[in-house]
């Protein structure tokens, strides 16, 4: 088997499957990244990567897959060897990249997070830095609300929540606001990713009066803070 990276693309029920062969290492990783981004730009939402003939992968290869996830492409890996899994574990990527044993298992979990995420982006977003608690499977994790809109929110967190991120359908978050006190919201995860600093989850907020009121309050608090900063800055001049 050649050490050079090669691949072919086939489709099953309309889903592209990349049959990879060789080593996904060094500069060869950029080849995979470019192909995944091109698929994303062409309108593809879901991709399955077949690792059956992949002999090794390094951190650059892992980051190539994560870059596609962060771009909004739903990527699943199948037939991952023990050697390659160890590399993903070392890079803490198994909590971000879903791995399945077969094509049918992977296809049975396919969703369309890209369209949901685009739907969220229709609303004006406001950047925040509000501490939140994330409740997943009755376990609480600390995070931060990075931005919020009437349609959704982006949450960042440091420690991996679970190795099976794509298996849970809803997420609860609780935050403390000056005027409203403790507020709990529920949403549907539509995007998972990772930056150099933290893990991120994009959630689509359920259309409730509570979430709409919360967003209005966050906008109000942020506007007040912005005005106060402007006044302070002006006084400083």
Written description of the protein model:
The chain has 237 residues and is an alpha+beta fold. It has two domains: 6-110, Transcription Regulator spoIIAA (2-Layer Sandwich), CATH 3.30.750.24; 115-236, Thrombin, subunit H, CATH 2.40.10. Helix content is 32%, strand content 38%. The protein contains six helices and eleven strands. The chain has helices spanning 28-41, 59-70, 82-90, 103-107, 113-120, 209-236, and strands spanning 6-12, 15-24, 46-57, 74-78, 99-100, 126-136, 139-148, 152-157, 171-177, 181-194, 199-205. The strands form two sheets. Strands 6-7-8-11-10-9 form a six-stranded antiparallel β-barrel. Strand 10 and strand 11 (199-205) form a beta hairpin. Helix 1 runs parallel beside helix 2. The chain is elongated and about 60 Å long. The N and C termini lie far apart (69 Å). Residues 111-121 and 224-237 have low confidence and may be disordered.
Radius of gyration: 20 Å
Integer tally of domains:
2
Work out the strand percent. 35-45%
**Sequence stretches where pLDDT stays below 50 over 5 or more residues:** 111-121, 224-237
For the biggest sheet, the summary is:
6 strands, antiparallel, barrel
**What would CATH call the class of the largest domain?**
Mainly Beta
Average pLDDT rating: 76
Corresponding CATH superfamily of the largest domain: predicted glycosyltransferase like domains
End-to-end Cα distance: 69 Å
Total count of strands: 11
Number of helices: 6
Shape: elongated
* Strand arrangement, major sheet: 6-7-8-11-10-9
- In the CATH hierarchy, what is the architecture of the largest domain at level 2? Beta Barrel
Helix fraction by DSSP (H/I, runs of at least 4): 25-40%
- Helix-and-strand structural type: alpha+beta
Q: What is the CATH topology of the largest domain? A: Thrombin, subunit H
List the secondary-structure elements in sequence, H or E.
EEHEHEHEHHEEEEEEH
